[in-house]
Design goal:
It is a single chain. The chain is α/β, with parallel strands linked by helices. The protein has 13 helices and 21 strands. Strand 13, helix 4 and strand 14 form a beta-alpha-beta unit. Helix 4 crosses helix 7. It is globular, with a radius of gyration of 21 Å.
């Protein structure tokens, strides 16, 4: 089957041009000048709209166990919600439990996702148990298409890795070309602050932020960068939220070190004020790192413009307010950490274009092209070009929408952006040439998505 997307403006990271896009089967076959006569089985009218590469969310947590419960989006519901929002690829995290192997963990996550995803997907690996066996297994994971390994400087007793363990994993990454991803917060100091807050009766959700100050994110980020420099390993800082951490990343990148960082929409739009909402409403916004004071937002937008922040992922990890977030009533440390957002990333970033924070090209770059290159999927993904997968979004830049739990498709009982009015909305989404979203209709389904074995980071010097 062939599809012609006619009359739109094709926007890639390199520029925007009026062009028609011909799709043959699962691939983009050609870009042609407007008015050039082509025949196709189906024609999509994109007049007045952008035609952009499908979004790539490089940080999601579907069906993730945490704090005695699990995130409520399955690989089916989460990938359907992603498709509604113009994301056509996710990279999720397989979570190694201490005492288990990396390969058995990867098998477990394949069993969760295979046959259940509505869009294409890949995996990162969380390494929580560093030993000779797991270090050797990193090589086997790379052979299986998983070459990014996440570690934690937070959550002592669960995921926490010592500096020595991080050093050993980074040495293996340097040897193999893999990239270490880092949750950079000083978990040892944070645990002390949390214990002190609870002992003094300060138990409301906002304490989650107050006991995880931005200085401890900045310190951990600097320490991770130092370990990466000593070992020569590439480093990717996940969900960067604080100006102090951004300063450390900027300085490292200015010296030419292979250091990269992502931020998330919640850190661009939400703040510690949301965590202070009464009647336990603040628990809806508990994530780690926490939301920061509003003055950090401008610094993060600046980092996106200067490429000190390389891309935007969601850290989508949804827990319902009822029965899940409420586990932390009377003790904020028991609130499951996570904010839903996989459906709204493209729209929230487009609002940055509307506000003058980003160019059109940068919007595409941070939502699709850079993650494709960072995670070894380019040029198969992340670009509108002949030979690429036909992951295409037709985007209406003038449509108005209001975000709400009443209209979103994520399997969670609240919206972190309830009532937010945005300009711009997905019109049509193609995943490998198949129309999965068209207007108000979903035409995809579980099983369409394929596992993506990924190549190494394409930005390494």
């Amino acid at each position: 089957m062939s599809t012609l997307i006619r009359g739109g403006t094709v926007v890639n990271a390199t520029g925007a041009v009026a062009a028609d896009v011909l799709v043959q089967g699962e691939k983009i076959a050609a870009l042609v000048a407007p008015g050039f006569e082509l025949q196709a089985d189906t024609t999509i009218d994109a007049t007045g709209k952008y035609v952009i590469p499908g979004g790539i969310d490089g940080h999601t947590h579907m069906e993730m166990p945490f704090g005695g419960t699990s995130s409520v989006d399955t690989f089916e519901t989460g990938t359907i919600a992603a498709a509604w929002g113009g994301t056509t690829t996710i990279v999720d995290f397989a979570v190694q439990a201490k005492g288990t192997s990396l390969l058995s963990t990867l098998d477990k996550w394949h069993s969760k996702a295979d046959g259940n995803c509505a869009i294409d997907y890949g995996f990162h690996m969380i390494v929580s148990d560093v030993n000779d066996t797991s270090l050797k297994e990193m090589e086997s994971c790379i052979d299986a298409g998983v070459n990014t390994f996440k570690m934690f400087m937070a959550y002592p007793g669960v995921f926490y890795a010592t500096d020595g363990e991080i050093l050993r994993a980074m040495q293996k990454a340097r040897e193999t070309g893999a990239t270490v991803m880092m949750h950079a917060e000083n978990g040892i100091a944070i645990d002390q602050l949390v214990a002190q807050a609870i002992a003094s009766g300060r138990t409301d959700p906002v304490q989650h932020a107050l006991t995880r100050p931005p200085e401890l994110e900045g310190e951990a980020t600097s320490r991770a960068i130092a370990l990466a420099k000593v070992t020569g390993a590439p480093l990717y800082i996940v969900h960067l939220s604080a100006a102090q951490a951004l300063d450390a990343v900027t300085k490292a990148r200015d010296t030419g070190q292979n250091v990269f960082a992502e931020t998330c929409p919640q850190y661009l739009y939400l703040s510690i004020e949301d965590m202070a909402k009464p009647d336990f409403e603040g628990s809806k916004y508990v994530a780690s790192p926490p939301l920061r004071p509003k003055e950090h937002q401008g610094e993060l937008w600046r980092g996106l413009r200067t490429n000190d922040l390389s891309l935007v992922s969601t850290d989508h990890c949804p827990f319902c307010f009822k029965d899940q977030k409420e586990l932390g009533r009377g003790d904020f440390s028991k609130i499951p950490n996570g904010i839903p957002g996989v459906e709204h990333r493209i729209d929230l970033l487009h609002q940055g274009v509307v506000r003058g924070e980003l160019t059109l090209e940068r919007w595409v770059e941070i939502s699709s092209t850079t993650p494709a290159r960072m995670f070894g999927l380019y040029p198969r993904k992340g670009v509108i070009a002949p030979g690429a997968d036909a992951d295409i979004v037709v985007y209406d830049p003038t449509a108005e929408q209001t975000l709400s739990v009443e209209t979103h498709h994520m399997n969670v009982d609240y919206s972190a952006y309830e009532g937010m009015e945005l300009t711009g909305k997905v019109s049509t989404v193609l995943s490998r040439g198949k129309v999965v979203v068209d207007g108000d209709g979903f035409h995809g389904g579980a099983g369409h998505g394929r596992f993506l074995g990924r190549d190494l980071n394409q930005y390494l010097i």
